[in-house]
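Q: For a teaching session next week I want to show students how multiple molecules come together into a single three-dimensional assembly. I've collected the sequence lines for a complex. Could you give me the predicted structure tokens for the whole thing so I can convert them for display?
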Amino acid sequence: MTKAKVRNFFMYVFLIIVSFISVFPLYWMVSAATNKSAEVISGRLIPGTYFLENLKNLLANQNVGGAFANSVKYSVILTLVSLVVSSLAGYGFEIYHDKVKDGVMSVILLAMMVPFVATMIPLFQMFSKAGWLNTTIGFILPTISTPFLIMMFRQSARSFPHDIMEAARIDGLSEIRIFFQMFIPTMRSTYAAAMTITFMNAWNSYLWPKVIMTDATSQTMPMVVANLTQGYVTDYGMLMLAVLICTLPTAIVFFCLQNAFAEGITGAVK
Amino acid sequence: MSKPKKMTLSKKHNLTGWVFLMPGALLILFMSFVPMFRALLLSFKTGVGAAMKSCGILNYTRMFQDTVFIQSIKNTFFYLIIQVPIMLIFALILASILNNKNLKFKGLFRTMIFLPCATSLVAYAVIFRSLFANNGIINLLFVKLGILDQPYAFLTNVWSARIVIIIALLWRWTGYNMVFYLSGLQNIEYSIYEAAKIDGASAVQTFFRITVPLLKPTILLTAIMSTNGTLQLFDESVNLTDGGPANASITMSHYIYNMSFKYVPNFGYAAAMSFLILVLVAILAFLQMKVGDKRD
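A: Of course. Below is the structure for the complete assembly, covering every listed component.
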């Protein structure tokens, strides 16, 4: 009994230390966003009252409003289009599968191994020729359809009951309506997981926007945060406020969909 | 239903399937495979814009004399070899602790450890850059505790810069992998663990004899994902250390970006380097799948 108690005690201590390390940098970010840079440097860890001042400096320094709006626009459009295209493809591969389609699917999975830097330069050349620099289509096109999402939806379509489909067909429902009216509502948790992953990737993407968003007015939120570190003297209060603003949308999506995300992954690794 | 009619129905379904998967498949063809092929062609050329001309394998021979590129390969593999195993082992340990049914505050611990995943990559790189800055809180703490006499320039010393990148990566991704393992563990009957306990198996034995073998497919998945991600590391190298000091912590993707868009653009050479990454990713994924199969 005592041995188990000692072990339990160390387990909790370990978990508390790991949790502290996980949370502390984020806490520090929030507290720094509300303090003066000099106070942050002196090690102040409690939230202060300098938040509005930091916000004023930040808005004067960078086009945060524009970048935030851009990021929201690009990420939301990419997420919606990507979910429809990828889930339709995953559904098509599984429900109507035959040898040829399975073969095509294995080729698509190979695309997972293609690192982005290997396609970045030709994509940049193609997109600048097409006049897609600084446009939403330029941002979203390379990542609308991803092997990972197609695989995820193909996996989930495997558990879509065939007799329900047959019943719907007998009732005269067209194939596309079976997809929209029956598959999508049944697979809500897969969609939630896919949405979390896609939105976060879209919001976080940095290399591709850095390549094609050459105009200051098309910049995204992560680009603005990166710009702020370029000066010689860092205003920590202002910088951490920008980091906080950049983190809020992904944090909100993460909190709303955390359980669905875990559930969707459970389905994917089964 | 007569036979010919059934044939047309299955043909119709076959066609519907193709229509459904076509947009996704075509996008992957034109956004992955076509550019990849064009990168291969580009890698045998030199020059800028319309004045590009063929140069044989010059770009490939140049690579092996380019000390910065060799440094970037060394750095990337250093991050890969040190960070990925530590992270995956750590994530496995955390997941098996959190899978314990009698643990209190399980949800709270899980959420806190998963929390770093909510931050954007640029954001967390900037947070760590600030924490480890000369006037950052880590230096402040170390000086106050008497561990250091004066602030240490973590980000401008060769080894400490590399280690800070590894610490940051561990912070950001351990919880992410842990969630995969927790999900995998949910597919394992909990009664197996209870039976092992009754049979007197120790925690370490249970971990190596039950958890690790049963989670093998998930471990393989996370290993491939992390390897792939680490070989393409970019945001951290740019925003945490800016590849410095003097390219000592630069990653391959970062150097290729610089070669394409920061210095005088040299698309041909950059494409050749990117092709080497492609080959490396393919080889490593193949090896991991082989190793994964063997342990069966």
